[in-house]
Write a structure and sequence with these properties.
The complex is a heterodimer of chains A (97) and B (556). Chain A has 97 residues and is an alpha+beta fold. Chain A is built from three helices and five strands. The radius of gyration of chain A is 13 Å and the shape is globular. The N and C termini of chain A lie far apart (30 Å). Chain B folds into four domains: 104 residues, Alpha-Beta Complex (Sulfite Reductase Hemoprotein, domain 2), CATH 3.90.480.20; 158 residues, Sulfite Reductase Hemoprotein, domain 1, CATH 3.30.413; 95 residues, Alpha-Beta Complex (Sulfite Reductase Hemoprotein, domain 2); 143 residues, Sulfite Reductase Hemoprotein, domain 1. In chain B, strand 11 and strand 12 form a beta hairpin. In chain B, helix 16 crosses helix 18. The longest helix of chain B is centred in the N-terminal third of the chain and has 22 residues. Chain B is globular. The chains are: A alpha+beta (97), B alpha+beta (556). The interface between A and B is medium-sized, with 25 and 31 residues.
Chain lengths: 97, 556
C-alpha cells in the first residue's frame, strides 16, 4: 500500500494527503491499494506541487497497524513521529500532550 | 575579532533584502521550487525530514557574546529552543518556517552574521584551529588569513559554481587541531628559516564515500601569495574537476586521478601567471586584518594558581574538569577552556537557548567577549584568567555544561543522522548517546585516555567517521540500521583514514562491540600513555578482529 507525503511550502512541516487535504499526521492518510489509486495520489501530489502548496512530494510504502496508517521505512516512521531522541518534538509531542 | 566595515554591512543587508524578496516571491507562487532551490541553498536553507533547516556561518568558529546571545534568541523565537553546532564550526536550526527566515537573517545581520555560502558548490565557511590566538604552540593566529580567504571567496564570481563544494581549513600550529589534511585545501601557517610567515599547502583531502588524505603540494608559500595560489588551485579544479558525476566531482578525485606531481605542475604554472598581479597581498592589508584579531589586553593575574590549588583540594569535580577541559594558554596566567556540548547521554553539539545566553554572559564576564565553536562540536572560551577558572566552572555547572570529557571517548562527533537529515541512512545520535552512557564513568574514560570516536549516519561522512580513532558508519541494510566500524583514523598532523574492521553490527550490538574494542586496547597497550591510535598503529587490526569476530569464525 502507498500513501502520499510531502513538506508544506510555508513552514516545511511534514504532511500526508488525507480526506481531500494535507494532514499534519500520518494516521489517516489516504491509502492506495492498486496502481490506479497510486496514479490518482501521484496526480494530486503533482498538482499540489505545481500549485506551490507543498514540496518534496513522494509516494511511500505504508501499512495499517491497529487501525492507523504507519509508514514502512524507518526514515518515514521518523518523519511521521519526530526525532527518536527528542520525544518532545515533532508529531509525537502533540500526541503525548 | 573582525568587525564589519561599511562594505560588509551593505553587502549583508543587500543579501537579506534580496533573499527576503525571493522568499516572498516563492511563497506567493511567483517562482517555482526548481527556481527557488538553488537560491535558498545559497542562503543556507535546506529541506530536511521534519522541516526546513537553516545553517548559519560562524566564520572560522569565532563568535562574540552578542552573537551567541542572538543565536539563543533565534532558537527561542523562531525555532524549538535549541541549536546544533556542526563540524564546520557553524550552527544549524532544525525547525524554522520558510516564512520566518527573512526575519531571522535580519536579526543575524544586526550582529554581523549571515548564512551565505553555507551550502552550494562554492567555497564554504573557512575553518581554523579553535584555540587560534590563544594556543601556546601557535606560530601565528591563522584567523586573519581565514578572514582574507572569506572576503576573497564571498560571492566570488568565478568560484560560485564549482564542480562541487569546496572546503578550506587553516592552522597556525604544528599540532593540527583543524583537521587540515581532510580538506580540499589545508593551510599550515608556519615560519621559514628567515622567520617569514607562509604556508605549507595541502590539496585534495576529503571524506565522503571516497576518503582521501590531502597531499602537500608546496612546503612554503609566502603569506603575500595566499590568494594568488588559492586562485590557481581553484582555477585548475574549476577547469578540470569532473562535472559528469557528483560522486567524483571533489578536487580529491582530480588530484587522485591526475596525480599529485601533475596537479602541482598545473597549479604552479597557473600561479606563475597570477603571482605578481593584483592578487598579491600588500603587507599593509594583511597587517590591517591582523589588527582586528589582536589579542585582548591580558593583564598579569598571577594569583590564579594559588586559588586553583585550594579549589582543587575542595572539589574533585573541579579538579577533573581542570585536567580535562582546560589547556595551556600562551600567557602563563591564562587558560583556554573547552565547554563540552557532550554531556553524558546528551545530543552531541546541541545547546539550548538559555545555555547559549548563559555562555554568552560567561564570555562577557570572564573571557574578553570571545568564544569559539570547535569542529569537534564544543564551545571554547579562548582566554580565561586562571584566577577566574573556578568562577567559570561554577557558572558552567549551573547550566549543565561542565562535563569533564574533552578528548575522551564520550566527546563524540556525531552528525544529525536519520533523526533529522534527509540524506541519512541510519541514526547517529542515539548510538552516540548509548556509547556515552556506557562509558559514563569519568574514571574509566580517563583510564582509556584520548580516544576520538566519530559517528556518521551515511556515507557522506558529516560525522567524520573516516578519521575517528574509532569510526562508526550507519547504513541501511535490508530495511534496518547497520553500523560499520573503522579503526585507526585520525585527523591531526598525522592524518589517516580508518580501516573497516569487518562485518557491521546492529544497533543493539554496536555499543558492546565498541566496548570490546576498547577492552582489547586496554589489554594490549604497552602502558597507560600509549594512546588508542598509537596502539592501533603498532599492532594493526588483527587483535581487534580476533576479539570481535573469532567466535563467529570458529562457529562457522
Amino acid at each position: 500500500m502507498k500513501i502520499l507525503t510531502a513538506n508544506r511550502l510555508t513552514d516545511g512541516i511534514a504532511v500526508w494527503y488525507a480526506d481531500g487535504g494535507w494532514a499534519e499526521t500520518v494516521d489517516h492518510a489516504d491509502l492506495a491499494h492498486d496502481k490506479a489509486a497510486e496514479d490518482r495520489l501521484e496526480a494530486i501530489g503533482a498538482k499540489a506541487y505545481a500549485d506551490n502548496e507543498v514540496v518534496d512530494v513522494n509516494l511511500i510504502d505504508a501499512d495499517v497497524v491497529n487501525g492507523v496508517v504507519e509508514p514502512v521505512r524507518l526514515r518515514e516512521k521518523i518523519r511521521a513521529a519526530g526525532p527518536t531522541i527528542r520525544e518532545d518534538l515533532g508529531k509525537q509531542a502533540a500526541r503525548a500532550a | 575579532m573582525y568587525r564589519y566595515d561599511e562594505f560588509d554591512h551593505d553587502f549583508v543587508q543587500a543579501r537579506v533584502a534580496e533573499f527576503s524578496d525571493q522568499v516572498e516571491r516563492r511563497l506567493s507562487g511567483e517562482i517555482t521550487e526548481e527556481q527557488f532551490r538553488p537560491l535558498r541553498l545559497m542562503n543556507g536553507v535546506y529541506l530536511q525530514l521534519h522541516a526546513y533547516m537553516l545553517r548559519i556561518a560562524v566564520p572560522y568558529g569565532t563568535l562574540n557574546a552578542a552573537q551567541l546571545r542572538m543565536l539563543g534568541h533565534i532558537a527561542r523565537k523562531y525555532d524549538k529552543g535549541y541549536g546544533h553546532f556542526t563540524t564546520r564550526q557553524n550552527i544549524q536550526f532544525n525547525w524554522p518556517a520558510l516564512s520566518d527566515i527573512p526575519a531571522i537573517l535580519a536579526d543575524l545581520a544586526s550582529v554581523e552574521m549571515h548564512a551565505i555560502q553555507t551550502s552550494g558548490n562554492c567555497i564554504r565557511n573557512v575553518t581554523a584551529d579553535h584555540f587560534a590566538g590563544a594556543a601556546a604552540d601557535e606560530v601565528a593566529d591563522p584567523r586573519p588569513y581565514a578572514e582574507i580567504l572569506r572576503q576573497w571567496s564571498s560571492v566570488h564570481p568565478e568560484f560560485s559554481f564549482l564542480p562541487r563544494k569546496f572546503k578550506i581549513a587553516v592552522t597556525g600550529a604544528e599540532r593540527d587541531r583543524a583537521a587540515i589534511q581532510t580538506h580540499d585545501i589545508g593551510l599550515h601557517l608556519k615560519k621559514n628559516a628567515a622567520g617569514e610567515l607562509g604556508f605549507a599547502v595541502y590539496v585534495g583531502g576529503g571524506q565522503g564515500r571516497t576518503p582521501m588524505v590531502a597531499r602537500k603540494i608546496r612546503d612554503f608559500l609566502p603569506e603575500a601569495d595566499l590568494l594568488s595560489y588559492c586562485t590557481a588551485i581553484l582555477r585548475v579544479y574549476n577547469l578540470y574537476g569532473r562535472r559528469d558525476n557528483k560522486y567524483k566531482a571533489r578536487i580529491k578525485i582530480l588530484v587522485h586521478e591526475t596525480g599529485v606531481e601533475e596537479i602541482t605542475r598545473q597549479v604552479e604554472a597557473e600561479w606563475q601567471e597570477l603571482k605578481d598581479a593584483e592578487l598579491k597581498l600588500p603587507d599593509a592589508d594583511i597587517r590591517a586584518i591582523d589588527a582586528y584579531f589582536a589579542p585582548p589586553a591580558l593583564v598579569a593575574r598571577p594569583e590564579g594558581d594559588a586559588g586553583i590549588k585550594l579549589a582543587r583540594l575542595d572539589s574533585k569535580s573541579f579538579s577533573d574538569w581542570l585536567d580535562q577541559n582546560v589547556v595551556t594558554h600562551r600567557h602563563p596566567d591564562y587558560a583556554a577552556v573547552t565547554i563540552s556540548l557532550k554531556g553524558i547521554g546528551e545530543v552531541p553539539g546541541d545547546a539550548s537557548d538559555s545555555q547559549m545566553e548563559a555562555v554568552a554572559d560567561i564570555a562577557e564576564k570572564y573571557a574578553f567577549d570571545e568564544l569559539r565553536v570547535s569542529h569537534e562540536q564544543n564551545l571554547i572560551l579562548p582566554h580565561v584568567a586562571r584566577a577566574d577558572l573556578k568562577a567559570v566552572y561554577d557558572a558552567l555547572v549551573d547550566i549543565g555544561l561542565a562535563t569533564a570529557n574533552s578528548n575522551l571517548i564520550s566527546d563524540i562527533i556525531a552528525c544529525p543522522g536519520l533523526d533529522y537529515c534527509a540524506l541519512a541512512t541510519a541514526r547517529s545520535i542515539p548510538i552516540a548517546q548509548e556509547i556515552s552512557l556506557r562509558f559514563a564513568s569519568l574514571e574509566r574514560q580517563r583510564e582509556i585516555g584520548e580516544l576520538k570516536l566519530k559517528i556518521s549516519g551515511c556515507i557522506n561522512a558529516c560525522g567524520h567517521h573516516h578519521v575517528g580513532h574509532i569510526g562508526i558508519l550507519g547504513v541501511e541494510k535490508k530495511g534496518t540500521e547497520l553500523y560499520q566500524v573503522t579503526l585507526g583514523g585520525s585527523a591531526d598532523e598525522n592524518t589517516s583514514v580508518g580501516e573497516i574492521i569487518g562485518r557491521g553490527f546492529s544497533s543493539e550490538e554496536i555499543t558492546d562491540a565498541i566496548e570490546q574494542i576498547v577492552d582489547t586496547y586496554l589489554g594490549l597497550r604497552l602502558n597507560p600513555s600509549e594512546r588508542f591510535i598509537d596502539a592501533y598503529r603498532r599492532v594493526g587490526p588483527a587483535p581487534f578482529k580476533e576479539a570481535l569476530y573469532a567466535g563467529e569464525t570458529k562457529a562457522a
